[in-house]
Write the structure tokens for this entry.
Amino acid sequence: MRTLYHKRGALVGMVAAGALALTPLTATQADEPIRIGYIDPLSGPFADVGHAGLNHFRFAAERINDEGGILGRAVEIVPYDNQQSPSESASHVQRATGRGIQFVTQGNGSNIAGAILEAVDRNNRRNPDNRVLYLNYAAVDPAFTNERCSFWHFRFDAESTMKIEALTTYMADLDDVQKVYLLNQDYSHGHVIEQAAEEMLAEKRPDIEIAGKTLHPIGQVRDFAPYVSRIRGSGADSVITGNWGSDLALLVREADSAGLDVNFYTYYGGGLGVPAAIGDRGVDRVLQITEWHANVNVEEDQPEYAEWVDAFKERYPDIDWYYHRIYNQMYMLKAAIEEAGTTEPKDVASALAGMEFESPTGTVHMREDDHQLQQPLYLSIMDDDVEYDVENTGVGFRTLAKISSEDAMLPTTCEMERP
Amino acid sequence: MNTTQERVAAGPNASAAVWAQRLWPWVLGAGVVVVMPVIFTSSYAITLMSHMGVMIVFALSYNMLLGNTGLLSFGHAVYFGLGAYTAMHVLRYIQATGFGLPIELIPLVGALAGLFFGIIFGSVSTRRAGVVFAMISLGIGEMVHASAHIFTGFFGGEAGLFGNRTVPSSLFGVDYGPGIAVYYLVMVWTLLAAVAMYLLRQTPLGWMANAVRDNPERAQFVGYSPQMVRFFQFALAATFAGLAGGLYVLVDEIVTDETVGMIQSGTVLLSAYIGGIGSFFGPVLGAILVVFLEGELSDITDAWLLYFGLLFVLVVMFAPQGIFGVLTQQFFAWRAGSWRGSLGPRLYGVASLVVAAIGVVAVIEMAYHYFRHWNPAEPMALFIFEVTVTGPMPWAVALTVAVAGLAAYVGHARPMLRRAMGGGGR
Amino acid sequence: MLEVIAFSLLNGLLYGMLLFMLSSGLTLIFGMMGVLNFAHASFYMLGAYFAYTMGLYTGFWVALFLAPVLVALLGAMVERYGLRRVHQHGHVPELLFTFGLAYVIEELVRLFWGNIPMNYRMPEALNFPLFTLFGTSYPAFRVFMLVVAVVMFVGLYLLLKKTRAGLIIQGSLSRPDIVSALGHNVPQAFMWVFAFGTGLAALGGVIGGIHFVTEPGMAFMMGPIVFVVVVLGGLGSIQGALIASILIGVLQTFALSVDWSLAALGAYFGYAVPPDHFFATLWYMDSTRLAPILPYILLVLMLIFRPRGLMGKRET
Amino acid sequence: MSARTALALKGVTKNFGRAEIIRGVDLEIRENERHVVIGPNGAGKSTLFHLISGRLQASSGSIQLFGREIDGLPPHRINRMGLSRSFQVTNLFQNMTVMENLRCALLWSQGHKYAFWKRVTSQQGVTQRAEELLERLHLSEKRDVPASLLSYAEQRALEIGATIASGAQVLLLDEPTAGMSRTEADDMVELIREITTDCTLVLVEHDLGVVFNLADRISVLVYGEIIASDTPEAVRANAAVQEAYLGTEAH
């Protein structure tokens, strides 16, 4: 039925495939550039988000290199395509450490961040002479700076409950906010927002009624009509949502076409692809809470940073400089390495912890207890009469309120183990 | 091809020499397993090879369904993933309580979970073969995957579950912190599982699985219930898939919902089919190839998913016996001496196809640069050249190469090859 | 409550009719050729993208007709040069071929159009609220979608009932051996049936691309649901496909719009599962969260207990 | 003649929709009898076989094998109770060799069932029986040839072999000589005679030469009804049969 000779070919194949595996394995050398492994999706459905982040990092690295690099060494961004898969990301951490890379960064997806954090911790525990730092530029799950905090992890974005804290503080002052609807994606990010928003609103404005709360499957809803009719049925005047990407764009579009008149308090109203999809339907209706937006440079008169933003736009006409935290992250890393005088992750981490840094938005502070960056936050609203528009739509954001880093600060439960 | 004689050689009257012949591939395989980490020492390469081991077990278990029993499943990852989750829960239980199960046996937990769910889902899905089975497997796959987001207690939500493989005790006192130790553990299990699945094909059940695949009616009239045969095969395949899941836990120490997902189910289908479902070792080759491509090709080119899809479509269209099938076919032809007299045309045919492939790859790479790069005017590296894709020249050259290669094959090499083989075969 | 029901019915009907546009083509292809076309939703996606790009030059109304025709021609080529070749190896390779094709089409779409959703909007002529119900305005475009779907169903029905080719096709859905009555050129007939089926999917895409989002993941999103509809409705039954489409559309929309859980149902009968029970998660689960798996539960149950589907004439 | 009844059909009917194919068949076949069912095309002979072997279910009536009701049981259960059949169209495991086909046919009756802990080729009992059968089927030379590469007559012989392999006491053979030349058919009859010495045999056959050569008794099935069931001589002399069947077909 089967023949013996089948087997030989298999082994030839195995050997051949193994031989090919030789190519990517290169040794490390001392005088090479400081390399930062960028682990984000570069293919598949989220590829554009990943590429946008990569361009941010590359741009910042070029600026630093033009200014003379760090300790005389150039900075190089090494992209790793994680296909938005946690296990793939974990194996990229391994691959990066195998090449002697001492810093990895990632932002898209707290599930991915969790896997990377785990892989980094594990690696640093098992290979003390080949450690790696994880610089998190966008994954906002509070756990990473609370119960799962790690000496090897630094977060440069504001974590989710900080944003909710800022949002609810602002909303508490508005008398016309009476009924709030919480619509979020059905995963930990959405769960955190739903819970935190309910608690904080109850504390700050007990008279505000939670008109309803709904979790919907992430990335699967194509027709938000049923949700919009639920929001309408609840009589809510405001919606808090942590939705991002098409989940937000579709929601706002549907609300607009059904003539629903509510304000959307969002995390990612200015996130990649969202303004383009919402267009002017979001004007005076979509608010976002971020650490920065382009018109801050105009409002606070920051010509140097404006030049940076313009140069980025010229370089990448399709996207805008969006991740201010990448600016913070890169320059704080530079400062930390220069302070430590080495790229050894343990020393750099010690230098980074507790560091204060003058950012265009004011002084920011990397809290030593939990490695969470404390920074001012901006609540802004979509407007068609601003200097900087987003995604070439003619619509941009205008600041409604600036929340100082003291006001946005929250306690941490982190009990950090330090080596 | 003279199959008769080979069948005689492989028949039941095998002498000691034949036994040696039967064993050597396994011995060689074990040798390769030992030598590989000596050559490729980086921790990443070792993890990659460990993943290959996991995928080999998984793909072989898939072939117990598709190749042996003719059951096309779109949800085999369910058993892989549930095995992995269960093994992870046990690993975490050991972490939490100090329960004394040695780490070497954790994959068995995965296997038991696979068996358990295989029995449950198998009993409802194996009544029919063909499209009905395929659809039920798809439905169950989607259901379990969606459940992963609902039953977050068991599945750990989208963040998944973590464990630490260094916590449990070891039967042999080995420290499983370093990847290399896990690599050898995985490989021992892989070899054991492969031998077990190889032997399973020769049992009454294995034979009747083939019988039911080819002719369920005749199987009934020799006393076998096709449903029961499918069910047993299904449960066993699920067991080995669960074992693969348990191994996966040891390698990655993380389990997420993607392990039960459609993409994982698709990957194992692709692996088995690209390798070749007609022979035992086809899926082994396919698993190695797919893991390698997933890990490496994605670093080299943005177009890797497209290449992957094209490779699969081409295999289905032109080589349904799989890559391994093609290799063995050619090997037999060579042994039988039918390469003699047609060597020239064969080389010519292969060369023309390679030229066509180079042209096609060039076009695809340039297209990706043109459409996807933020600045298409920036020169790109293509093979050994540097090209600017905004001009017409590179396109013309690449298209010419592709068309010329294809035309040479279709219009010249293939007829020539047919003539040569028609003459040489007799 | 009344308005929730009214809107859920309307929206469910709309979603169902869109599902029907896809599934009617697939059920024709499946019923006649035995090919369970995994790439069917990919042709739906191509319909949307073609219409978007064409619409930039010709406007929506021309694209509405031209895009499905183009996709149908593409479908004919896929059948002629791909499927027909694989056909000789049997049904499993056919299925696998379309499976791989779906991968390739998605990647090509990503290549040419990128990952971000297209700015594919409804024509201005239909961009107004047609009527207002319970304070919610109902867009004219949705009514237009319903009209297109109904026209398509009627056209398909007449085609199958009143023309000779239609009658033979209808016959062959229940008795594949009748296909030979189409004359000596069965392969060519297959090619045109495949083309026609993909054309129908593309028409669904032209409209669905506006109603939902035109993005590379739209095929992957739609694919499995279309299978569910075809299997549920019964092999080769156009009416079955219609019923199943509307059933699934309404069911999913209702699950999303109405607060409902097993616990609520249980409470009605005065029964409750203790909160620490193993099945408590399921018991107290909101219907909104269960909605995505409902179609698959239906699919599995249907295949186990009635593999011929609601209206099917023979088993799949 | 043995007194035991091997197979008994009582009032068996079968409808397909409104078409009544089998219209109340009563048939009794004694042990070790060679019983041939004849009848014009479309009389329902194959349907009758399908009913007995469990491929189809009767609409009404009862079918008993050695006194046990078998109607409604799946084919493999009926097979295990001692009834085996061949098909009008060759129905083998085409990808397997002759030897493998025979082994598969033997596995269940040798008690190996769904075993997955022993190798087929190590089962001496199976191998021995299979070798014997090969001898008796005159297929020893073709031992390791895939079934699909056999000549038509050889395939038919193998089919008969696979049918009897399990040691069933009752064999249903559906037109074993269909499509064969005269000499091939004669060889086949000879083979059947040789290898079915202690079985009950039920045949459907068109070739009247074969029928009268082989049969102990003959039943004539016309339009779903048995119009005669008797010894060959008596059937030949039966006026109703001559009119309905022999008269029209065998001038």
User: Anything to note?
Assistant: The first strand of chain C starts at residue 129 and ends at 133. The interface with chain A takes residues 3-4, 7-8, 11, 15, 110, 114-117, 119, 129, 135-137, 139, 211-213, 215-218, 221, 253, 256-257, 286, 288-289, 291-292 of chain C (CB under 8 Å). Residues 2-305 of chain C form one domain.
